[in-house]
User: Which sequence fits this backbone?
């Protein structure tokens, strides 16, 4: 379908809903949750039957390739493990019980597809075994298939099977993003429920066709930029500017707070359920009843609120950084990193910074501004070891933060130097000629960048990775 491949963007607006609407929406979300669980249960059942079947076992022994994939999908079709079949199952479920009175056909189909996709990801090992949605947690969103039926956007409000839900427009709309989005064609509409503080709030997301408006306050630069993304630092070097900064520095505070709250939750759980623990403080095996006190639930709500704020913080930081990079230039040279290995090597707190998400955003914005992100192999270029001047290679431990070479290059901060070299990579290899040419001008830029970090960070904690 072309709808899926054409570009789209989302405009999110809070909904102005009162008691009766909230009640209606909650009932519909509960219906969607139960439908999701029913379809997920059926999908997992069909999947385990499929995996046990002799045919599947036989296909597994085939050599990987197109024939094998085709055999797998044929087998899945026979076992009823397809989006189409499970949508059919979901529709029958819905029509056979109370859910049918509260959920329209399109929302039910989309919810079924969601459950199927979760099971499919599990099959392809790209995520763990999907869990059923509990009543307390619920579903966070329900969406339609098109703007023609089910959940629909009508000029200035949402219509959904007898409900009219007006959104709260942004009266200032400083950058004109809202006005622009409202002029675009709406592909489909999503209703989202979020827990903000201790309250549930409702939002509408309009999935619009096209590309979002580029805010005028975000300038677009020209030329090539070198980028070096480290576990906790980002170095960017452009034609006339260079910068070295921390990558999402505020995340640590969030993590600290979350850890403290989780320890408190653990203590509370142990206090109120002493019979579930062995004398050595380990949990007794088997299924047990847990008493969750009011204090415990309060702590849990605090944790989930912090997690939400943490994600929002990360999103803004990523956005700001992407725009800073794009303002220096739109052709971005960087090393190809495996973000999974990143997390494995540097731990969870680095994974929490979501470098993969950042790169995705950067790629999208760069393309939107008419440029692109060029990734080259770390192994072939070995930028962290090379010296552009004498072309010697030297293995440096990660703890050495400054590049200094016998030929007279340096001392220069390691990340900035890598970013500078990345800028001079052509067709997957470092062009030492071009790097030598630009070095004179760049050296002072890099030094300025380091001075700037020293100034702005004075008084604050500077990470050891900067190397001061
Ligand atoms: Zn050298």
Assistant:
């Amino acid at each position: 379908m072309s709808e899926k491949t054409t570009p789209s963007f989302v405009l999110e607006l809070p909904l102005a809903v009162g008691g009766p609407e909230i009640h209606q929406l909650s009932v519909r979300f509960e219906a969607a949750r139960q439908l999701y669980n029913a379809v997920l249960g059926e999908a997992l059942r069909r999947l385990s039957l499929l995996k046990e079947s002799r045919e599947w076992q036989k296909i597994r022994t085939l050599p990987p390739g197109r024939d094998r994939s085709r055999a797998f999908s044929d087998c899945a079709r026979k076992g009823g493990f397809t989006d189409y079949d499970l949508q059919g199952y979901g529709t029958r479920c819905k029509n056979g019980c109370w859910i049918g009175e509260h959920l329209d056909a399109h929302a039910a189909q989309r919810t079924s597809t969601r459950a199927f996709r979760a099971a499919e990801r599990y099959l392809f090992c790209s995520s763990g075994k999907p869990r059923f949605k509990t009543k307390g947690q619920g579903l966070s969103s329900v969406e339609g298939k098109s703007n023609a039926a089910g959940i629909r956007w009508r000029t200035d409000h949402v219509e959904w099977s007898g409900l009219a839900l007006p959104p709260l427009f942004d009266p200032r709309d400083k950058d004109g993003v809202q006005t622009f989005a409202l002029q675009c064609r709406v592909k489909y509409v999503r209703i989202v429920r979020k827990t903000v503080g201790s309250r549930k709030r409702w939002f509408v997301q309009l999935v619009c066709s096209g590309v979002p408006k580029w805010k005028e306050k975000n300038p677009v630069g020209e030329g090539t930029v070198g980028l070096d993304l480290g576990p906790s630092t980002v170095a960017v070097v452009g034609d006339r500017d260079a910068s070295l900064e921390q990558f999402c520095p505020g995340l640590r505070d969030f993590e600290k707070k979350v850890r403290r709250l989780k320890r408190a939750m653990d203590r509370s759980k142990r206090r109120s359920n002493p019979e579930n623990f062995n004398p050595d403080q380990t949990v007794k095996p088997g299924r047990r009843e847990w008493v969750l006190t009011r204090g415990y639930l309060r702590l849990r709500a605090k944790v989930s609120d912090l997690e939400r704020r943490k994600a929002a913080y990360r999103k803004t930081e990523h956005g700001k950084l992407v725009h800073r990079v794009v303002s220096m230039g739109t052709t971005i040279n960087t090393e190809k990193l495996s973000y999974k290995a990143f997390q494995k090597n540097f731990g969870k707190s680095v994974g929490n910074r979501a470098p993969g998400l950042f790169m995705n955003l950067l790629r999208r914005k760069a393309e939107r501004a008419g440029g692109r992100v060029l990734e080259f192999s770390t192994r072939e270029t070995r930028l962290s070891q090379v010296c552009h001047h004498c072309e010697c290679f030297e293995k440096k431990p990660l703890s050495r933060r400054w590049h200094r070479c016998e030929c007279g290059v340096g001392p220069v901060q390691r990340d900035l130097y890598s970013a500078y070299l990345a800028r001079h990579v052509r067709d997957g290899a470092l062009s030492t000629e071009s790097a030598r040419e630009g070095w004179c001008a760049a050296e002072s830029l890099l030094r300025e960048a380091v001075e700037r970090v020293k100034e702005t960070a004075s008084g604050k904690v500077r990470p050891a990775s900067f190397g001061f």
